[in-house]
Design goal:
Layout (H helix, E strand, L loop, with lengths): L13 H20 L4 E2 L5 E2 L5 E2 L5 E6 L10 E6 L7 E4 L11 E5 L6 E5 L4 E4 L13 E4 L5 E5 L3 E5 L19
Antiparallel strand pairs: 1-10, 2-7, 3-4, 4-5, 5-6, 7-8, 8-9, 10-11, 11-12
Length: 180
């Protein structure tokens, strides 16, 4: 007596395919298109349109032309994320516009400084910390949701922050210090 072999059919509903597709595209967008919020010695910020975005997508840091006009020079600054008209709340190199050559924002590992460095290693702006010690390899400058750009060693010790070097915009959490 021969047994009849029972064939199993694998059925997939259309809704299951849609669900799997949605999960796949979500994971791809998270892995491939997530914005970064930190500059490290190994991962500088280039002036090719790249920006830093705070984790909560509140603020963005990048290179810009004031009023979109290149005749006034180029700067690096922080503005509210997602606003079409950039309302810049902090500018690093406000006293020295950048040339039209390539410039990179870097954390320099050997001295712990955050610098805007151009061709030929020309320094256009620096935090000017003069630490006198060698910083750790875990240094980084992180853009916070408060709009503060924080340079820290090992993510714990704050070495410098943009809130200590304010421009003409006062943000919540900033402390204003009067000179004596």
């Amino acid at each position: 007596m021969m047994r009849k072999r029972r064939e199993r059919k694998f059925r997939v509903s259309v809704s299951s395919i849609h669900m799997l597709s949605a999960i796949f595209f979500f994971l791809c967008s998270v892995l491939c298109c997530s914005a970064r919020d930190t500059i490290t010695p190994e991962n500088p910020l280039n002036d090719d349109g790249e920006t830093l975005v705070s984790v909560g997508k509140t603020f963005e840091l990048g290179f810009f032309f004031p009023n979109g006009n290149s005749s006034h020079g180029r700067y690096i600054g922080i503005w509210r994320y997602g606003l079409k008209n950039e309302t810049v709340v902090w500018v690093a190199n406000r006293g020295k516009p950048l040339p039209n050559t390539s410039v990179v924002a870097r954390v320099i590992a050997h001295d712990g400084e955050l610098k805007l460095v151009g061709d030929g290693e020309t320094v256009y702006w620096s935090t000017n910390l003069n630490l006198g010690i060698l910083p750790s390899s875990d240094m980084g400058a992180k853009l916070m949701d408060s709009g503060n750009l924080v340079l820290s060693d090992n993510g714990t010790e704050i070495l410098w922050e943009s809130f200590m070097d304010p421009t003409d915009t006062f943000l919540p959490g900033m402390k204003y210090q009067l000179e004596k």
